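User: Some background: our group keeps a shared notebook of sequences we're curious about, and every so often someone picks one and asks for a predicted structure to add to the entry. Today it's my turn. The entry only has the sequence so far, pasted here. Could you supply the structure so I can complete it?
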Amino acid sequence: MVLILLLVAVGLVGADLLRRANSRPTTLPRPPAPTAATGTMTPAMDATAQSGPSYPATGPGTWAYAGGQGPVLGTAGRLRTFRVAVENGMGQSVVPFAARVEAIFGDPRGWTASRQLRLQRVPKGAAADFTIYLATPGTSEKMCAEGGIHTQRYTSCRTPGQVVINVARYLESVPGYGVPLADYQTYAINHEVGHELGYGHEACPGPGQPAPVMQQQTLGLKGCVANAWPFLNGRRYAGPPIP
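Assistant: Of course. Here's the predicted structure to add to the notebook entry:
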């Protein structure tokens, strides 16, 4: 009888210990502590890079320039020359960027369609009317701020003689733009070059209509649909000017 009572007591104690063990809260492993920012926009550091390529948050402010001289683009009008530069350390080559710029300028929907303007790319050492820069967000913000424009490292800009394209927007476009990335890239270049050519901002002319290229489409289409070109159907397409 005594042995039986001892066995029962041991069983009760064991059950109680098991119950207490199961009632303790589970301690999960802590997530790794965030590391200090290194200057590289990765999916863990910048929301704009979550689904796209990574790129430096800022760069050295030094440049690789497209070499040689490009063809004259356009058939009539004043000849304006430009250089093309890509910031070092971004993993972007100046050669395809320069080729893309020239293709946009030579398109029959581009600025040279006015027949009042011709454009030609020249190398670094040559005199030029303006330079098109592809820059990191940090460098583009610095360059734009020096001209009095604050982009919050988000938009591109133009200051006199400088067309500054933010690589973040060039590689990722903007939410809700609704067309392929290549179209946004074309818009960004045409818009900022339009400022260099003397054009100001324009408004959406009406719901469902193409957005003028001088509309600030990066900040919203305002009921219009995306459009990357200043000329449509052979005519300059514009919206109401914004004072």
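Suggested note for the entry: The radius of gyration is 29 Å. Residues 1-50 have pLDDT under 50 and may be disordered.
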